[in-house]
């Protein structure tokens, strides 16, 4: 029992050292970084992930030809799937965690992670926040600084807080 607790307690620090420190370093080239992420269990195609990204778990899938820029945060307690040929700009935050509403003693009740999907060919602008359970349809653009709290239908430009469809593409 004690060994299991110790093993569990060491998982997060080990992940943080390997994934969020070593692999995230500017001293690691893109091929080695991608290999480390794959060894950790992430499903990374022939994609480019910049240094300085942070991950909570291995529940990440990134398609071929996609680019993820520096400073992105993946609170991926549920799956985050990014399709092929997607671009994710600087400092985008993917939040899969949410909670049921608790009683007056603690409003953030039981955690209920929900997956996020970014479909093929989409572009997520710098500083955007993608909230739990959202699907960004194929060929969408999410404007910089947007907060996406609902699904985005394919081939649209979405922007704002909350993000709204501005025009068809």
Explain how this protein is built.
With 169 residues, this protein is an alpha/beta fold. It has a single domain (2-168), classed as 3 Solenoid (UDP N-Acetylglucosamine Acyltransferase, domain 1). The protein has two helices and 19 strands. It has helices spanning 2-22, 30-40, and strands at residues 43-44, 48-49, 54-55, 60-62, 67-68, 73-75, 80-82, 87-88, 93-95, 99-101, 108-111, 116-118, 123-124, 129-130, 135-136, 141-142, 147-148, 156-159, 164-168. The radius of gyration is 17 Å and the shape is globular. The N and C termini lie far apart (56 Å). The mean pLDDT is 92.
Features:
UDP N-Acetylglucosamine Acyltransferase, domain 1, 7-stranded mixed β-sheet, alpha/beta, 2 helices, globular, 169 residues, 30% strand, 19 strands
Number of strands: 19
**CATH H-tier superfamily:** Hexapeptide repeat proteins
The biggest beta sheet reads: 7 strands, mixed
Q: What would you call the shape?
A: globular
């Amino acid at each position: 029992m004690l060994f299991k607790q110790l093993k569990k307690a060491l998982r997060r620090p080990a992940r943080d050292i390997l994934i969020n420190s070593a692999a995230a370093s500017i001293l690691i080239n893109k091929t080695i970084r991608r290999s480390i992420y794959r060894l950790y269990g992430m499903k990374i195609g022939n994609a480019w992930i910049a240094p300085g990204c942070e991950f909570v778990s291995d529940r990440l899938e990134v398609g071929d030809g996609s680019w993820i820029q520096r400073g992105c945060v993946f609170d991926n307690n549920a799956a985050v799937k990014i399709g092929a040929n997607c671009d994710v700009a600087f400092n985008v935050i993917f939040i899969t965690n949410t909670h049921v509403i608790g009683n007056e003693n603690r409003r953030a009740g039981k955690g209920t992670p929900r997956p996020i999907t970014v479909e093929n060919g989409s572009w997520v602008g710098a500083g955007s926040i993608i909230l739990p359970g959202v699907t960004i349809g194929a060929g969408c653009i999410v404007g910089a600084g947007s907060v996406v709290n609902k699904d985005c239908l394919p081939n649209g430009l979405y922007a704002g807080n909350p993000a709204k469809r501005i025009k068809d593409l």
